[in-house]
Amino acid sequence: MNTIKYILVIMAIWLGVSGCDDFLGDNRDPDAVDKVPVDQIMPVVLFYTALQNFDHAEYGNYLAQSITTAGRSQTGSFAYRSGWEFLGMNRHPQWRRHFYDVGSNANELIKFAEEENSVNYLALTRLLRLMSVQQTTDVFGDMPLTQAYKSSSPAYDTQASIYEWMEAEADALIALFDNPDVQKATNRPMDVKVDRVFAGDMNKWKQLVYAVKARILLRKIPNLSNNVATCNQIIAVAELALNGWSDPRYKFDGGSSVEKNNMWGRNNKPVNSWESRQNDLNGAIPTRFFMENMLGYNPNTDQSIDPRLPYLMEKRADGNGVVKFRYLESNIGMPASHKIEWYPDMYENPMASDTSTIIFITRGELHFIVSEAAFWGGDKTKAVEHLKHGIRYHMNRLQVSASEINDFINNPNLVPGTSNITISDIMKQKYIAMYMQPELWNDVRRYGYSNELNDRKYDNTIVYPGLRRPHNLYEAYWSGAESWIQRLNYDPETEEKYNLKELVRLGAYRNHEWLKKPMIWAPQN
């Protein structure tokens, strides 16, 4: 990680500009500004938190095999969309997003908030930082934490120690949010201009603390400590989150500037071409796995057993005017005679409009967390109950009709009961509900990409039947064994230049085998 290069000066002009195009840069000497008011820093930290959510979700949806592209290249600028040749990529936005855009600004915001005793800003900033730490370690593994920002070459903490810190920080935040001064916010209140999510409602933000803690604890199953006590702990925390829960939605107002359009929308703009990614849904194609195995689409009848399919995407006509859903095996390449316009319009869902919201954690995800933990804890009744709640939430979010929702949920052949529910039933439904959400890839890796080829079973069940690696993987890395991508390589633009010693120590420097090393919460063989 490079020497801290604060971008705090951009906040000083937040209120004087109409869009982030004017200020999401790094062009002024940070020493030129001694202090920036916390209510001008917070909007930027929240914006970058939303952008970070998109960064992880955009990578994860390709890596979890829900969408692919029309090409079949083994290499390219976006390895997660092609042949997994990650060592040739220039940089990953997730690293910069955490250490520079969220992390360094959060550190300064925390310092200023402590100086003026704005404890509501302190509590919220620490929460956003905690969420950022988890998202980052979950894709990179070991990384700087205790020594971050203290030198240009900080030591990396182990992922295990980072998870210990996160658990402790979550508990500390729960106590902090109980502080009456956080709730009263008398020193410096927040309004919607500062907090686009909850307009300063700390009670709603506290529920997100419980949700983040539930995510942290969820990593203990199914591979670390699959026991009833652990499962009950997860359930208890997730149910605390659900009690009074409101989805933390980052709201977009519409327009052309980068902070005014949802990153998943048609008119999204990347934050500088060198540090961000465009969603490129206009070039995305659903995979066979997503369509047939997850959504139950039958190409012969052009019908799906899951009513969400036409709400997730819009089918289009080919050159002969035949309108149907089309899809591809991942990275197999579009037939030469086909056009991308024949494949579904991936923007035609309520989550991908310019004014859609970015939700940090959804109510549906919490229901699936309870369902999964209850299953492993032996409470099949609770598992089924929350499975149905999770499905209903997601269908409502997509604006599926009430009759279609009830027909699906009440069909025992589609949604099983307590006597025959499997872990695959839960995780398949969560997979669909996590489309365009960052947790999708984490779940698939937690279950070791369980499929028929690797024969990895949980409770004697294949979790993701039909899941396959992409075609045309980069042969120098991925030929032979049924190995899967487990992590991203560290950002070459900072770590290879300033922290090479740590990469060498970890065995991560220019080593494609590092990409296959599982996270501590994933199966290790």
Describe the structure.
By secondary structure, this protein is mainly α. It has 3 domains: 8-225 and 474-516, Serine Threonine Protein Phosphatase 5, Tetratricopeptide repeat (Alpha Horseshoe), CATH 1.25.40.390; 281-342, no CATH class; 363-436, no CATH class. It contains 17 helices and 10 strands. Helix 3 runs parallel beside helix 6, helix 4 packs antiparallel against helix 6 and helix 7 (228-242) runs antiparallel to helix 10 (363-377). It is globular. 49% of the residues are buried.
Percentage of residues in helical conformation: 40-55%
- N-C termini distance: 30 Å
Strand order of the largest sheet: 1-3
What characterizes the major β-sheet?
A: 2 strands, antiparallel
Give the C-level CATH assignment of the largest domain.
Mainly Alpha
Question: Which residues form runs of ≥5 with pLDDT under 50?
Answer: 1-33
**Total of DSSP H or I helical runs spanning 4+ residues:** 17
CATH architecture of the largest domain: Alpha Horseshoe
Question: Remind me, CATH topology of the largest domain?
Answer: Serine Threonine Protein Phosphatase 5, Tetratricopeptide repeat
Structural class of the helices, strands and pairings?
A: mainly alpha
Indicate the radius of gyration in whole angstroms. 22 Å
SSE string, helices as H and strands as E? HEHHHHHHEEHEEHEEEHHHHHEEHHH
How many runs of DSSP E, i.e. beta strands? 10
Strand content: under 5%
User: What is the residue-mean pLDDT, rounded to a whole number?
Assistant: 91
Number of domains: 3
Query: Which word captures the global form?
Result: globular
